[in-house]
Every structure is written in structure tokens, then in C-alpha cells.
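hi! just following up on the protien thing from before. the input was this:
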Amino acid sequence: MDATHDTGPRAVRPEADATASAPALLLRPWRVEDAAGVAEAYRDPALRRRASATVRDETEALRRLRTRHDGRETGERLAFAVLQARPDGGGEGRSAGHVVLKAPHGPEPEVGYWTAAPARGRGVAPRALGALTHWAFTALPEVTRLRLLHTAANTASCRVAERAGYGFEAELLPAPTEFPSEGHLHVRTVSGRAPA
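and the predicted 3d structure came back as:
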């Protein structure tokens, strides 16, 4: 349950350069050995409030990782672990979050993400989302537009979307049970221009 065997642009791993205050980010498919880190991340009350799935322990985290692997195999979702690079250049360091491309083979996939509590406040989410966005437009030629949806009350996601170049497009009415509260739709196009 790790890297795909793609060649060409899809084989390029998305990453984000280091900043003055944060290490580089590496994105790769989730692995079984990531279960403990996922369980730890979901202990955070803020993540649990916003997450669409419940992960209470390592067993549930492993089930979640298998679902992500199956989604990659069927082409329904391309989920990536977001890892901080080691400062010494020695590869992968601490887990920082998750990004996903839902329905990646259509013209308008949806992106999603979460950031682990210890990594928040250092620009991880917009940098990881930017890396996923660049990768999607480069590796998947059929993708011309990416959508980001979040609840209207989640102002932090508005800031992440804006910093990653996703312009606000519309307010969304509740659509129970899938999206039970008002939301926002942000969009980024392959040209790099956010909608007016």
C-alpha cells in the first residue's frame, strides 16, 4: 500500500520548498506504517470536529488507510500523506497532514486537506495544497479546474484557499446529509487564475 508504479508526470512526487520558518514538504501515497501517525492526528479535537470520518484508534486508522489505498487503485481518490522533510536532507520526517484529489479523472476534481495540530500555523496547508494543485495540473491533462469546498464557518479554510490561489466562487446552501451546513466553493483553474 504505497507508491504507484506510474511513469511520466504522474511518477513525480509533489513537494513544496522550505520557507524561512518551515521545512520542505514531501507528498506521497499513504502507507500501512502511517497508521499510528493518523491515529495521533485524529486525537486533536479541532480535526475531529471538521473531519468527515471518525478515527478513534490505530485499528480505525488502518481501515482508513486501506480505504485511501482502494480509492487510489480504483481511481476514485488520490490521497497523499504530507510529510515534513528532514532538515539534514535525509528524506521524510514528521507527518504534517493530508491532501486528496477526489474524482481525479474528471475535468473538475475536488481537493481536500487536513493539517496535524503540531504543524498548524506554519503555512503547511496552503503549501501542501499548492503542491497538489501543481501536480494535478501537470500530471493529469484532463484536469482544467479544481474545486475546494468547506463550511462557511471554517474561516481558516478560506484563508488556506486564498493563499493557495483558489478564488471564492459561490456560497453553497446546505445539502444534508453530505454537506449539512452552509458552505463556500473556491476554484482554481489550469491557467492559474482564480475566477473573478
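Residues 1-9 have pLDDT under 50 and may be disordered.
The two ends are 41 Å apart (CA to CA).
cheers
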